[in-house]
Amino acid sequence: MNIQELVEKYGDYQIEMRRWFHRHPEPSCEEKATAAKIREELDRMGVKWRQCGLETGTMAVIDGRAPGRTIMLRGDIDGLSVTEKTGLEFASENPGMMHACGHDCHISMLLTAAKILNDMKGEFTGRVVLAFQPAEENGKGAKAMIADGVLDGVDACFGQHVWWDYPAGTVAVCEGAAFASCDMFEIDVTGKSGHGAEPQASHDATVMASAIVQNLQTIVSRETTPIDTAVVTVGTLESGTRWNVISGYAKMTGTTRSYSPEVQKKLPGQIERIAKMTAEALGGTAELHYECIVPVTYNDVTFAKCVKKSAAKLLGADAVVAAHPTMGGEDFARYQEKVPGVIAFMGIQNEACGACWPQHHDRFTVDESALIRGAGLYVQTALDFLAEGMQA
Ligand code: NI
Q1: CB-proximal residues (5 Å) to ion ligand 1
Q2: What is the pLDDT of residue 118?
């Protein structure tokens, strides 16, 4: 298999699919037209599929000429509530929705990979499972597909994310953490309201909340080893009802990120201790509600080396570039909790075609010439894993 052949044989299909999905972005858990199109394409290829997990989840299977190992390839399919401002001729037709994270690229790369693998099924042994996963952005999709058996019998899993700050066509594979853990928290602060002119008779929830926001900063600066990384962000803070009334209640919401399960595990306790004791010191109380959205996306080191080898084989050694993890979250982490897995970054940056905006930006776009390379990388990684297992 060489990349030039793939471009000639499957390049047009790749672009046609990417543009169709780009026109039709849908919210997490509501990817109905998207799922219908994926299934229609699989039917057209003669690839077996079933609904999996959520209503909009699709799992397909391609068996080689004889039994062997099984690899799962994953592409996520949901859009974002962003109003597109790219001006592309195939821009979103769904007002207020946009494929601003590039999941349209993932769907089309995985469909193209399905087409290639289906054409080659007489040439490999083992099984390829394709997971067209909905609801990545809210962290629900992977969990639901796993509960419905997408990983049954699977030996390893591989995913890709197109990424804005790598040059188009390059591949970057982290050995270890690739995406951060992502948790969500809410803190309710209760004081005692009163007249704005009589602080001595009240306990001001605004002052408590402000002090909590300040003190939370010490989790990263004073409690986390400088070798590790963490983020504690308070995103919203609401307090009070009126300019001349001392607030009796405040509420804040925020998120935490980390690259290490150990750091992540400590965060809820640290936030709770600081919030409670700060509020108490000022005469009030605080309650924490803490929820883990996704754990750290941790690439299996041995498999990561294999993926780099596959990428170099298909695209040339120069295409494999140094990788840096991102502080974003990815529910691909859920698969990696069950089987060894790698998610690679496929570079799509190219200023000449306007592909220079970060993920989730309303002008985010990609250099489409990179996408057939992504489709090829799905295939090459699968073929190498099925033939050799993890031999880095
Ligand atoms: Ni994404």
Answers
A1: 101
A2: 98
